[in-house]
Write a structure and sequence with these properties.
The chain has about 270 residues and is of the alpha/beta class. It is about 35% helix and about 20% strand. The chain contains 8 helices and 9 strands. The radius of gyration is 17 Å and the shape is globular.
Amino acid sequence: MRAYSEGDAVPADSDNRVHCGASSPAKYLIVNADDFGQSRGINRGIISAHRDGIVTSASLMVRWPAAAEAAVYARNHPSLSVGLHIDLGEQILRAGEWVPLYTVLPLRNESAVRDEISRQLGVFDQLMGHPPTHLDSHQHVHLREPVRAILLDVAQRLGVPLRNCSPGVSYCGRFYGQADDGTPLPGVISVDGLIRIFETLPSGYTELACHPASECDLPTLYSQERLEELKVLCDRRVRAALTDQGIALLSFADLSQGRKRSVSAGHT
């Protein structure tokens, strides 16, 4: 669900899965599932989309009870790259206005925001046993200050991308079934709609966000669309389109490893 404008899992032996540094193709796609750990239905949807579909990475919400279940799966399936989905609250549309569904803290309190981000990073490390491979946030709150500046510092310290803020990785949020005002967007969450997105991807590395779920078990306006996303992400025609268009799937972990190899090669 969008409260703020964002602009504009695959098996390890997938034919489309390559590591950074390969000579071709010129387009690489990271398919990242948001909200991992927010509910059991979302967990199962992301797991299915990784196992049977094209999801390569996920962003973990550590404040929710289902986060522990999500982390167990991720630790046992390292082909799913896991980053941190910073959670500072959620807004929903009521009578045409965005209102808080829940609030973790006042976003203008820079000290409190910094402490909460540090706490969520600590919980992530406890759950996963390693730092996140990438950073983003629930409802793109990191595009607002002071969250943006704080997370840019964290991303630089960890050496990981921050969604829509780090050079080298383009962001695509167009695989989403609602407009910013909550209006349904028929046809976007479809096989044809996703293939059209593939056709417009730029060269280089792109992150495509998604929100699959196997059941609607959260009080959210974006619910039925999650079920449709799961179907599309697992459709064989989608993977075939990636092959036809010469687009290679990779994860954020693949991206990080590729960058490390490039640095090492440059110093030999």
